[in-house]
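Input chain follows. Return structure tokens only.
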Amino acid sequence: MSRHPQLQIVIPHLIEATRVKDTSLGAFQGWFDSIGAAIAEYNIQLENMYNADESGFSIGTIEASKVIINRYICERYQALPGR
């Protein structure tokens, strides 16, 4: 580690592998287009919009202790299989 100052040791954040795989500009654009169309079609007011998390609980998932990453990229996500 002392010979490579660009490296650092961190505890990763776990994220489902399907979320990593489906993360693209096209996927995001399609989602926002469909939400915008629904808001326009049903005349939904911003004060009537709520956020909910559907991820649930991951029982029995063991987090990795530590990983080595490039400190300049700062990707701290570790993919785990879905539930």
